[in-house]
Amino acid sequence: TQLLEQSPQFLSIQEGENLTVYCNSSSVFSSLQWYRQEPGEGPVLLVTVVTGGEVKKLKRLTFQFGDARKDSSLHITAAQPGDTGLYLCAGEDYGQNFVFGPGTRLSVLP
Amino acid sequence: ETGVTQTPRHLVMGMTNKKSLKCEQHLGHNAMYWYKQSAKKPLELMFVYSLEERVENNSVPSRFSPECPNSSHLFLHLHTLQPEDSALYLCASSQVWAGGVYNEQFFGPGTRLTVL
């Protein structure tokens, strides 16, 4: 059974701080997605990474896929209250499986 | 707005009721999914339909019955549920490419279900 772990589970920071959250597995994935979910809503896709070592930037968010395609990180620069939410990573296994991590709940205080 | 709509947004039902959740996607995708999201647990995949055929059923109790009449619509029929079935039920869609690769799922807002 493939599992994705995310850390930290909870993170509370002040506006303007930088942060990094992690998504780890012992399994190799063909692609990995990051989603953000706000209370009472469905997850919204932020980015998909496919190539080992790939780095993608989305404004203040930087996503990196590990060289071995088993892990990923999300770095947020100068966090804002609007970044508050549950950050989920999800791994796809060449069409055979699609598994979600438990998420990191981020709170950015003004 | 992700192009995936779900109704109702909130549902309260008794253990003996029968109800249905509806999902519609406006993205032209060919695969649709039902997920269950409970507090403090990861998203649990319940059912997958690809090209309108069920391709995955993760040992979901028979009190949950999916229906996919076409590539744009997905239903989840509920019958004789238990209080522990209370959760956020999410629908998603994606485009399945040749070779069966699933990618980039787009989610609806979910139905918050409470079973009394």
Describe the structure.
The complex is a heterodimer of chains A (110) and B (116). By secondary structure, chain A is mostly beta strands. Chain A has strands spanning 5-7, 10-14, 19-24, 31-37, 44-49, 55-58, 61-65, 71-76, 85-92, 98-100, 104-109. In chain A, a hairpin with a 6-residue loop joins strand 4 and strand 5. Chain A is globular and about 40 Å long. Chain B has 116 residues and is an all-beta fold. Chain B is 0% helix and 55% strand. Chain B contains no helices and eleven strands. Chain B has strands at residues 4-7, 10-13, 18-25, 31-37, 44-50, 53-57, 64-70, 73-79, 87-94, 106-107, 111-115. In chain B, strands 2, 4, 5, 6, 9, 10 and 11 form a seven-stranded mixed sheet that branches. The radius of gyration of chain B is 14 Å and the shape is globular. Chain B starts with a strand and ends with a strand.
Q: Any descriptors?
A:
heterodimer; A: 110 residues; mainly beta; 6-stranded mixed sheet; 5-stranded antiparallel sheet; B: mainly beta; 7-stranded mixed sheet
Which regions of chain B are unreliable across 5 or more consecutive residues at pLDDT < 50? none
**Residues in β-strands, percent of chain B:** over 45%
Instruction: Provide the succession of SSEs of chain A.
Output: EEEEEEEEEEE
Distance between the termini of chain B: 31 Å
Mean pLDDT of chain A: 93
Number of DSSP helices of chain B? Answer: 0
The percent of residues in helical segments of chain A reads under 10%
Provide the low-confidence segments of chain A as ranges: none
The major pleated sheet of chain A works out as: 6 strands, mixed
- Rg calc of chain A: 13 Å
Q: Which of globular, elongated, flat, extended, rod-shaped describes the shape of chain B?
A: globular
Oligomer: heterodimer
**Order of secondary-structure elements of chain B:** EEEEEEEEEEE
